[in-house]
Every structure is written in C-alpha cells, then in structure tokens.
Amino acid sequence: MADSERLARVAADPRYLALTRRRGRFTWTLTCIMLVAYFGFILLIAFDKSLLAAPIGSGVTSIGIPVGLGVILLAIGLTGLYVRRANRDYDALVQSLVEGEGE
Predict the structure, then answer these.
(1) Tens digits of per-residue pLDDT, 66-97?
(2) For 54, left (φ over 0), alpha (ψ -120 to 50), or beta?
(3) Which residues of 61-81 are buried (b: 16+ CB within 10 A; e: fewer)?
(4) Helix or strand or coil: residue 62?
(5) How far is 34 from 80, CA to CA, in rounded Å?
C-alpha cells in the first residue's frame, strides 16, 4: 500500500479522529495550566514585588525564589505527564491504525 493511501486511510479512521480530539483537549488543558502559572508569576512580579521580595524566615532567600522554581518544576512535570500519556495511550493507538489492526 502506498504511503499516501495509508495516510488517507488513517486520517479518515474514526478512531484517529477521536484520538486527535482527545489529545487536543489534553494538550490545551496542560497549556492553560502552564499559562496561568507563568502569567500569574509575571503578574506577581509586576504588581506585588514586595510579596515576592519578602524573606523566608530570617534568611536571605526571598519567597520569589521557590515560587519561580515551582513554575519551572511545573513545566517539567507537565512535560513528563504529556510524554507518559503519549507513550502509553497515543503512540500505541497510532501504531495500530498505521498497521491496519482492528479493522
């Protein structure tokens, strides 16, 4: 079977269309979570510097350092979540569609 025929068959498969909708919802959810966290941090920097500049306890580290680190760790965590789900769910279904299983 030619690649263009295989591509057309996969693109028309209802399972593939359902997969793209499900994956799209998931990626937009993760994107919104990251945007809220990032822009929330930026807005705190812009409008409440004193909050982020407040020291933690009697040390020299301010609250802004762990909050900023939290935004970075959130991005890494969301990326790992997407990769895990893609490897577990999406890749297997796409592979089965390409190979023509379950027709």
Answers:
(1) 999 999 999 999 999 999 999 998 888 888 87
(2) beta
(3) ebebeebeeeeeeeeeebeee
(4) strand
(5) 13
**Residue 40 corresponds to which tokens in the numbers above?**
């929330």
> pTM score, two decimals?
0.79
What letter represents residue 53's amino acid? A
Rounded Cα distance between 74 and 30, Å, is: 10
Amino acid (one-letter) located at 43: L
**Interval 5-50: pLDDT, tens:** 777 877 788 888 888 899 999 999 999 999 999 999 999 999 999 9
State residue 59's pLDDT score: 84
Encoded tokens for 3 = 């690649």
Q: Tokens 């762990």 label which residue?
A: 66
φ, ψ of residue 62 in degrees (nearest 5): -90, 165
- Secondary structure of residue 50 in the 3-state scheme: helix
